[in-house]
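Appendix C. Worked example: OprO/OprP family phosphate-selective porin
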Amino acid sequence: MKRKLLSFLFFSLGVCSLWAQDLALVDSLEQQKSLYEQLKKDDARSFTSHLNFQFCTSLTTSFQDFALDQARFKLNRLRMEVLGRFFDKFSYHFRYTYNKYTNPNTVDELSTHVELANMGWDITDRFTLTAGKQFFMLGGYEYYVNSILVREFSDFNNYTPAYLTGVSGTYHLKPHQSLTLEVANNRVETEAEIHVGEEASSMPKVPLMGALNWVGKFYDDQALQFYYSAAAGQILRNRNIYYLTFGNVWERGPILAYLDCLYSREEVDSKGLVSSIQTLEKESPLTAQYVQYLTWIANFDYRLHPKWNMYVKGVYETGSVYKDNWIYKKGTYRQTWNTQFCVEYYPLKRKDLQVFLHFSMQKIHFPELARQIGGKDFSTQQIMLGMLYTIPVI
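Step 2, the predicted output written as structure tokens:
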């Protein structure tokens, strides 16, 4: 009987304790004010927030050397984006993608699913400070524009990190001109797949990248646009990387045309396009050093009708070695030609929904130096019939 009474007593005390904890938790939440409420003034403007989902899917048919490789339905991109402002001077921008793999072992200790996670502060009418994961401030229209609008990127843009964690300051020289200085991590993952032997193989203790970006818009309601940038940083100790990137855009009436030039000089091959050619040393391959990449992108869009658009794009890229190292002799190792044609249909006035038919052909040529280490020419072709929708939730 005593055991039963003791058991009942402990049980009752436990229930009362849990109930009290639950009440305390609820009460604390009810009394706690949000950050906005704590700082709010009577004349402060309301907090703004915008949520959207960016969705792109397609039936993709791929060919290699004009022979069918595979045909499949793909979810090309699925992203969630939240952005807004508060107190007039502050902004925030978060974006999560569902297409990238999860890698918790990163420099910034943030899942690679997170593309953007930053806050901005308009210190003055002309100067804005932004901190967190943000765009790597390179130039070029294709790099600058929202990536969900690009059907197929150049190899240069595909293998260059688009989002890095750091801090940037933007000064608005004039209403349509801005200058941005950015300092950020020079890579995302902590274990880069770089193997250059014992010499100079250690990672830098301060793996930072600096970038200077200028955006200018001129003539007839900003029809002529420029996106120019220079960047430099360390890949390994005593091994640096440099970028010069330019975007020149004409956007007026039914025409959108741009010419991008992208150049990188890398003392260690960070993109891996030259390094991936060699197949002779499969057991102990070394990353190529002293490489450079040059890319030209020319695009012409023409709006046939408010609901119809078409564009043609041409890409030419080279990858070369500018100083002898290991099995890599000075010279050109890779040349790529890419031609794209796309027709787009917009059923809605808002242009949020788009149906597209996209063709692309790519030819990859390996000159004699590349063939000596295992390179073989090939071509790829692709047809995509798809739909893109940016869903404005809030």
